[in-house]
Amino acid sequence: MFNIQDISPEALCKKYGTPLYVYDSQRIIDNYTRFTESFQVKKLKVHYACKALSNVTILQLFNSLGSGLDCVSIQEVELGLMAGFSPNDIVFTPNNISEMEYNEVVKKGVTINVDNMNMLEYMGMNHPNIPLFIRINPHLMAGGNSKISTGHIDSKFGISIHQVPNVKRIVDRLNINIAGIHVHTGSDILDSDVFIHAAELIFSVVEQFDTVQHIDFGSGFKVKYHQDDLHTEIESFGFHFSKAFNAFCTKMGKEYTLQFEPGKFMVSDAGYFFANANLVKQTTSCTFVGLDSGFNHFVRPMFYDAYHEIENVSNPEGDKKIYTIVGNICETDTFGADRILNEVRKNDIIMFRNAGAYCFTMASNYNSRFRPAEVLIHNRQDYMITKRESLKDLVKNQVMPEIDEILKPV
Q1: How far is CA 324 from CA 111, 164, 282, 293, 319, in A?
Q2: Which phi-psi region, left, alpha or beta, contains residue 186 (left: φ > 0; alpha: ψ -120 to 50)?
Q3: SS3 call for 220
Q4: Of 15, 72, 67, 26, whose CA–CA distance to 44 is shortest?
Q5: Is the domain covering 54-262 a CATH 3.20.20.10 domain?
Q6: In angstroms, rounded to a whole number, what is the distance separating the alpha carbons of residues 133 and 127?
Q7: Are strands 178-182 and 111-114 parallel, antiparallel or unpaired?
Q8: Please, what's the b/e burial string for 222-256 (b: 16 or more CB within 10 A of its CB; e: otherwise)?
Q9: Local structure of 280: helix, strand or coil
Q10: N or C: less crowded end of the chain, CB within 10 Å?
Q11: Region 1-15: what's the mean pLDDT?
């Protein structure tokens, strides 16, 4: 019988309803500890990529572990500050934002990572005393899906490594303090050689800026989505990458801070998504299990063709059968086709694994459906950390003006 810290999924679903997201705090703690202990360098700083799961309670947990925070919007910065992070522990890495948002973030006192030369010039001219990070695009194609590969030559992210001479010209002319160099090549990367190749390119950039103190390699580590799935062996990666990083520090005679920004690695396998089986429908070609959810709540299988293990937690001893699991949205929203599950009956609870990263944060109100509740299991106790939405939440920002032409009966 599957439990989360000794609490059964069915008990949680009975208490909080479905659909429901549940997170295991101990798994998050174990992932963070495993990651940080995999590197043997003098200075290491981990910034949790909060776009993966940005609930304030989750952010507070990372803050208690000593993590920093990687943010991509001013709203994420504000959530981080709300969760208790020091501005010094927050790195802001946006793309394609306006000068207005940069100016607002400057007021927050966080570290700013610039990803284009126009903004580098703007920051140097308008905020000359602020140390900056620069995001470099190394032109490496890496990642498990083109939508999550961010370091290739056609990517919108970062400043091309071939433009570094122009960057240096701007930096020297405006006397900008470049405190860090940042690179992020993509997600679901298996091979440490990709990171080490990126490191060699980035080290050549670091050598050109005497003020650099931090070298940030983003993240992109692949996690398991099923038992036999390929994944990044973080201990092996940490060993080999530490050797390359330490050798560079020795060469330069300087102890740089090694930084990473893992998101999925930290929270993916700590999350579970539960939905109710509204019906079991036999057709001429397959048997559908129709859930009380859809891609409005859990979009990764449809958006990324992502695989998530699906289980029937209500009937763990049932006979194995083949099902196609679908949602209740007015478009095709197939979670998994031809999956082998224990026999599904009406109102059984269906569980999705690896629902901690890029799941609730990508949820929407499509079809005017309410977003689910979120629950954290901590020290064998369950805590609601996001209430289920209501109709009041759905319309709270709508304005109904008194316009006779619109409201007049036909």
Answers
A1: 47, 51, 10, 14, 16
A2: left
A3: coil
A4: 67
A5: yes
A6: 14
A7: unpaired
A8: bbebeeeeeebebeebbeebbeebbebbeeeeeeb
A9: strand
A10: C
A11: 96
Both tokens of residue 320? 């194995």
Peptide bond into 19 cis (omega under 30): yes
One-letter amino acid of 87: P
pLDDT tier for residue 403 given thresholds of 50, 70 and 90:
confident
* Tokens (6 digits) for 117: 């030369």
Give domain limits for the chain.
54-262, 268-395
Name the residues annotated as catalytic: 330
Cα distance between residue 61 and residue 37, in whole Å: 18
Q: Which two tokens stand for residue 347?
A: 């109102």
Encode pLDDT of 40-76 as tens digits.
999 999 999 999 999 999 999 999 999 999 999 999 9
The partner residues of 265 in beta bridges, in order of sequence, read none
Quick check: 291 and 329 in contact, CB under 8 A? Answer: no
* 220-279 per-position pLDDT tens digit: 888 989 888 888 899 999 999 999 999 999 999 999 999 999 999 999 999 999 999 999
Domain 268-395 classification at class level:
mainly beta
Provide the 10 A C-beta neighbour count for residue 264.
22
Task: For residue 118, count other CB atoms closer than 10 A to its CB.
Answer: 10
Helix (H) or strand (E) holding 45: strand 44-49
CA geometry: angle at 332 spanning 146 and 268, to 5°?
50
Distance CA 241, CA 252 (A): 17
For residue 28, give the H/E element and its range: helix 25-36
